[in-house]
């Protein structure tokens, strides 16, 4: 170590950490030990029991408190004389604007979701502050360095979008357990305990028997004096019994599918449950925390045990009863939370009953919770290793050692003897809409899509904008902000409900939109292409956004397959614990106007580093052995 | 399924990691006993990791009194002299570690590791030496090998921004997931003595330079009677002489062990905390694998160097057939 120069670079640095969770705790500790003296840390979360196995700065007594604050206090205990400032807040809050980011020498991400990562990426680009990004899942992890103009930004490569399922698969034709979970969580749970005014597909598509539509509306309404158990049974019979029976009436649907079996409560449960567990003891004690749970009174202890149809039905009724008996105040504004024991029990039971009906294998509460909560598999060791790698890169960034920057993959199985594999960073992708302002193309039915669809499905979901503004030519169609007057708000709200082609400034085939986020200081152009039809299975959003990544060349294989690069991308993000293997050809990072005939581009091998996909390598080896 | 079920409390606390390695592995972890000797930065990281993972017990040995130097790269010791005065490193670390996970039994064992008899090691499943001379490492490794039960043996050493891990699992059987099916595997590990005696000409092609450099430093410390890590730039000349002799004895050119690397190792007495986190993380991961009997273990050396950022596994076994 060239200690002198390094130590002064570290001492003088002002560092922003985003996230005080699994990676964050390790990172804050390693930064402090390494001699950093001015660290700011943002995290909106509070501490939970399931954090304690790896977020070692937290104790049981801290459950419920701010992660950022407790982490700060814990580190000050072994490094009392450094400055750590904690913010118990969402990094997307407007107070963390470009000026806020500008005060830092480097930003270090230890985040758990794609959305916040993209937001921070944009602010770092706008403020021109280097970003060290990280992610882990299980034994896998990665650290990347993003310096404006020198290396690719976090969004130069598309990230796997959160998995979405076609609506009809969820409402009528589930084939996997995850479909049942989505149904139980997003439809049934939301319908029973969430906002009643929210649109919900629970009844709409499951049958064609129009006659009963009015009556259905009422099923979910509970009369003030209605017995809770009776109410629960009514819901049970409706969603698992008559709804299925109605669906079966539509023969077309089941021509090539296995027919589901309607299940009614009287087939599985005794007439009345009350005497069975009259003296219900519904609070399980987990290390001092009292948790409302349906399991103890039913004699269920092990969350990894598989329950049968009867047990699931009992849990369903019991959990529903407990919601009404003990948590009545929350009903109407609950959203599913993986750390809400009773909610997990209810969703597990409902998903299992539905699975039974559709001939899908049942799952334990533990497994169901993992699927429902998109739970990231996490261990302390990987987080510690990744935090160490982040600090090493941060120090290089502070010393401006640009040619030494590396992205590093932490692997479970060695690839070419390596468990930690450093790779030279990629150059910025010239067709990245975030760091290179390349226009995007949106295929959409301009007569059948409303401005609201565009805002929800593209601007918010795909472009990850927080405070968007949409312009068409000189006309401002939509914006979000607290400084708008009532007339403008009314105007924008009216626009949201209009079809694109019927807006004051109509959006039609060939229109070019400007979409901006003032907080992120990001602006991008979208060229609109009208299209009539979309495939409901493959394009469930009813619109397709493309442009910033080159689609893999279909006829370019001959160019040189050895130039294909595969990298592992691991993210501790809600979108998944899966590893996405992706291909990117640096030879194609050219302006997008090249046509097929010009595709026999000579690739410039100097721009390449050969990385083999570690997963493929290890598989190959196994085959040889 | 073996042994008792995990308690409700354990399942809640270990939820996220059970999703990684399963409930069976977690049960085996909660029943394992780990001995750790010599607590510097890397071992501190290691201890934190295995205590969080939920091993049954951790026994700490390190009778050095806490000094300024011990505070470096160590987050288990509050830098308050009144709190640590008169206490040994093991005692103070024990107090902090207990706090991390009340379900793990952490204790201190006084005395010198090298004088312990074979029976002492029988009560452990894993022995880790974080700070010890070559002769201590050899002796303890031999004692572990004499026992009828298998005691997993590890050494770890971090200098400058580099680190080395050695692993001896003797005859080791384990399972691993191969696509869909679970397969049984078996590996034979050489002892520490056997591994470091492999003629340099017979080591795998492109073995990392750190392997040879560490052997030079080890030889230096033994011949000069130094404590591990007790050397400075003043010793470089002697170290280079020893390197020359070793290279000659192994009939390899002197460029086999770069002088610049030896200089780093000789002068880099303060540990580099990021390297400690990385090497301590890998070591803990390996111990978790060995205890749970799941996944390919590291065989039998691991090297990390922050300068090139590589974490490399080397298999250096005495294969006469080569
Ligand atoms: Zn970019």
Features:
heterodimer, A: 625 residues, alpha/beta, Rossmann fold, Arc Repressor Mutant, subunit A, Structural Genomics Hypothetical 15.5 Kd Protein In mrcA-pckA Intergenic Region, Chain A, 3 domains, 8-stranded mixed sheet, 6-stranded mixed sheet, 18 helices, 18 strands, 33% helix, 16% strand, disordered C terminus, B: 322 residues, 2 domains, two-stranded antiparallel ribbon, 13 helices, 18% strand, globular, binds zinc ion
Characterization of this structure:
The complex is a heterodimer of chains A (625) and B (322). Chain A has 625 residues and is of the alpha/beta class. Chain A has 3 domains: 1-162 and 375-432 and 548-625, 3-Layer(aba) Sandwich (Rossmann fold), CATH 3.40.50; 167-372, Ubiquitin activating enzymes (Uba3). Chain: B, domain 2 (Arc Repressor Mutant, subunit A, Orthogonal Bundle), CATH 1.10.10; 440-546, Ubiquitin-like 2 activating enzyme e1b. Chain:  B, domain 3 (Structural Genomics Hypothetical 15.5 Kd Protein In mrcA-pckA Intergenic Region, Chain A, Roll). Chain A contains 18 helices and 18 strands. Chain A has helices at residues 3-11, 22-34, 67-78, 98-102, 114-127, 167-171, 177-193, 213-219, 228-249, 251-254, 265-268, 309-326, 341-357, 365-372, 380-398, 451-460, 486-496, 614-624; strands at 15-18, 38-42, 83-87, 106-109, 131-137, 140-146, 283-286, 289-292, 407-415, 418-423, 440-444, 468-472, 475-479, 512-517, 522-530, 543-546, 565-569, 580-584. In chain A, the strands form 4 sheets. In chain A, strands 3-2-1-4-5-6-9-10 form an 8-stranded mixed beta sheet, with helices on both faces. In chain A, strands 13-12-14-15-11-16 form a 6-stranded mixed beta sheet. In chain A, strands 7-8 form a two-stranded antiparallel ribbon. In chain A, helix 7 packs across helix 13, helix 9 crosses helix 12 and helix 12 packs antiparallel against helix 13. Chain A is globular and about 80 Å long. Chain A starts with a helix and ends with a helix. Chain B has 2 domains: 8-194 and 271-314, Rossmann fold; 198-267, no CATH class. Chain B is 43% helix and 18% strand. Chain B has helices at residues 8-13, 15-30, 41-53, 68-71, 81-84, 89-100, 118-122, 134-146, 192-196, 209-224, 236-249, 259-267, 273-292, and strands at 33-37, 57-61, 105-108, 126-129, 152-159, 162-168, 171-178, 181-188, 301-305, 310-314. An 8-stranded mixed beta sheet of chain B has the order 3-2-1-4-5-6-9-10, sandwiched between helices. A two-stranded antiparallel ribbon of chain B has the order 7-8. The structure holds zinc ion.
């Amino acid at each position: 170590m060239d200690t002198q120069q390094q130590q002064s670079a570290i001492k003088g640095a002002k560092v922003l950490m985003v996230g005080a969770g699994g990676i964050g705790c390790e990172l804050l500790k390693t930064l402090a030990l390494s001699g950093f003296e001015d660290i700011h840390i943002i995290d909106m979360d509070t501490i939970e029991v399931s954090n304690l196995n790896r977020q070692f700065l937290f104790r049981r007594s801290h459950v419920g408190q701010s992660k950022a604050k407790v982490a700060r206090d814990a580190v000050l205990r072994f490094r009392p004389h450094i400055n750590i400032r904690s913010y118990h807040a969402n990094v997307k809050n407007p107070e963390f604007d470009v000026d806020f980011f500008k005060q830092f020498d480097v930003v270090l991400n230890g985040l758990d979701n794609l959305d916040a990562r993209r937001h921070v990426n944009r602010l770092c680009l706008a403020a021109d502050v280097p970003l060290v990004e990280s992610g882990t899942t299980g034994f896998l992890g990665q650290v990347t360095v993003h310096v404006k103009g020198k290396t690719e930004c976090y969004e130069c490569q598309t990230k796997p979008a959160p998995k979405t399922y076609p609506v009809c698969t969820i409402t009528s034709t589930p084939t996997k357990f995850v479909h049942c979970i989505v149904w139980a969580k997003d439809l049934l749970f939301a319908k029973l305990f969430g906002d009643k005014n929210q649109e919900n597909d629970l009844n709409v598509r499951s049958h064609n028997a129009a006659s009963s539509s009015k009556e259905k509306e009422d099923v979910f309404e509970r009369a003030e004096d209605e017995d809770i158990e009776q109410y629960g049974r009514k819901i049970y019979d409706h969603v698992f019994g008559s709804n299925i029976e109605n669906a079966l009436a539509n023969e077309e649907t089941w021509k090539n599918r296995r027919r589901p079996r309607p299940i009614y409560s009287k087939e599985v449960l005794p007439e009345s449950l009350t005497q069975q567990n009259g003296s219900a003891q519904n609070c399980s004690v987990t290390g001092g925390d009292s948790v409302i749970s349906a399991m103890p009174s039913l004699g269920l202890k092990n969350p990894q045990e598989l329950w049968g149809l009867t047990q699931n039905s009992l849990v369903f009724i019991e959990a529903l009863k407990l919601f009404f008996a003990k948590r009545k105040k929350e009903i109407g504004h609950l959203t599913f939370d993986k750390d809400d024991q009773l909610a997990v029990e209810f969703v597990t039971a409902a998903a299992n009953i539905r699975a039974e009906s559709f001939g899908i294998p049942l799952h334990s509460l533990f497994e169901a919770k993992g699927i429902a909560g998109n739970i990231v598999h996490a261990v302390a060791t990987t987080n510690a290793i990744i935090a160490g790698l982040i600090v090493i890169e941060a120090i290089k960034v502070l010393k401006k050692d640009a040619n030494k920057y590396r992205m590093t993959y932490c692997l479970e199985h060695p690839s070419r003897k390596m468990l930690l594999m450093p790779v030279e960073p990629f150059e910025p992708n010239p067709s990245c809409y975030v760091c290179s302002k390349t226009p995007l193309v949106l295929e959409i039915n301009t007569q059948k899509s409303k401005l609201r669809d565009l805002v929800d499905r593209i601007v918010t979901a795909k472009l990850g904008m927080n405070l968007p503004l949409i312009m068409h030519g000189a006309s401002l169609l939509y914006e979000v902000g607290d400084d708008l007057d009532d007339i403008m708000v009314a105007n924008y709200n009216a626009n949201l409900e209009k079809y694109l082609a019927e807006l004051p400034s109509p959006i039609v085939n060939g229109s070019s939109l400007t979409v901006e986020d003032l907080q992120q200081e990001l602006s991008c152009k979208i060229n609109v292409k009208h299209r009539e039809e979309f495939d409901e299975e493959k394009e469930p959003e009813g619109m397709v956004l493309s442009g910033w990544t080159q689609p893999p060349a279909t006829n370019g294989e001959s160019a040189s397959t050895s130039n294909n690069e595969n990298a592992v991308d691991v993210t501790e993000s809600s979108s998944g614990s899966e590893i996405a293997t992706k291909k990117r050809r640096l030879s194609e990072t050219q302006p997008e106007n090249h046509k097929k005939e010009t595709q026999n581009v000579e690739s410039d091998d100097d721009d390449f580093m050969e990385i083999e996909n570690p997963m493929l390598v290890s598989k190959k080896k196994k085959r040889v052995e | 399924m073996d042994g008792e079920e995990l308690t409700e409390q354990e399942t809640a606390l270990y939820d996220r990691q059970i999703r990684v390695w399963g409930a069976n592995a977690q049960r085996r972890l909660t029943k394992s006993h780990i001995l750790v000797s010599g607590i510097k930065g890397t071992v501190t990281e290691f201890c934190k990791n295995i205590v969080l993972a939920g091993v049954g017990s951790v026994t700490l040995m390190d009778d050095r009194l806490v000094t300024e130097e011990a505070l470096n790269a160590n987050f288990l010791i509050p830098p308050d002299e009144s709190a640590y005065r008169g206490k040994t490193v093991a005692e103070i670390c024990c107090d902090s570690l207990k706090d991390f996970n009340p379900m793990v039994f952490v204790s201190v064992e006084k005395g010198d590791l090298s004088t312990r008899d074979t029976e002492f090691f029988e009560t452990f499943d894993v022995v880790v030496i974080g700070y010890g001379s070559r002769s201590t490492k050899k002796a303890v490794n031999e004692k572990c090998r004499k026992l009828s039960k298998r005691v997993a043996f590890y050494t770890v050493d971090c200098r400058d921004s580099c680190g080395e891990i050695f692993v001896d699992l003797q005859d080791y059987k384990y399972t691993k997931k191969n696509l869909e099916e679970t397969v049984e595997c078996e590996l034979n590990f050489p002892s520490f003595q056997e591994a470091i005696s492999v003629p340099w000409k017979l080591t795998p092609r492109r073995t990392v330079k750190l392997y040879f450099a560490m052997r030079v430093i080890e030889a230096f410390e033994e011949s000069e009677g130094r404590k591990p890590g007790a050397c400075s730039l003043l010793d470089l000349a002697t170290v280079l002489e020893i390197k020359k002799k070793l290279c000659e004895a192994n009939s390899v050119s002197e460029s086999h062990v770069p002088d610049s690397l030896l200089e780093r190792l000789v002068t880099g007495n303060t540990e580099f905390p990021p390297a400690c986190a990385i090497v301590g993380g890998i070591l803990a991961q390996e111990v978790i694998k060995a205890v749970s009997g799941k996944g390919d273990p590291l065989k039998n050396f691991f090297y990390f160097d922050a300068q090139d950022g590589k974490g490399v596994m080397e298999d250096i076994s005495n294969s006469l057939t080569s």
